[in-house]
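Q: I'm writing up a methods section and want to include an example of the input and output format. Could you take the sequence below and give the corresponding predicted structure tokens, formatted cleanly so I can copy it straight into the document?
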Amino acid sequence: EVGQPLAVLDEVDLKLQAEQAEAELRAATGVLAQAGAAEGRAKDLRARGWSTEAQLDQVRAAADEARARLSRAERSVELTRNSLSYAQLVADSRGVVTATLIEPGQVVAAGQTAVRVARSAEKEAVVAIPETQVNLARTGDAHVTLWSDPGRKHVAKLRELAPAADPATRTY
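A: Here is the clean output for your methods example:
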């Protein structure tokens, strides 16, 4: 069913990364507050003639760096929260699990296929087409009849054509 959990990843490392990003955000906020205050003082001193333009430029550069650090920290918090939300893999449509490609305890890489789900609303058929019929398959109408229901024809649409022929059968 839609929203049904299919797999749950260990969240410990993801939570630690989120905590680290939030700590960095707090640190960056403090550094920016300090740099902003120093920038304000430096502007005041420069306006009164008690400071040089070079000193003001140095303080401005430090404040700019602090603003950039805060921005990076905010993005890092967003990224880690997104990663944490991906710790539970849920079904995006009704269907049937056709393959589980991961094992309990396995280290899974980002983007690695974990579960294959056949959608209930869509049916797929794999058909071997001779090379001479490939152009017809791209443009022609097709119907599929199931052995379990030979009296009913299903309208078919080409979704994908293999880029190379099967080496054994020379079909696509």
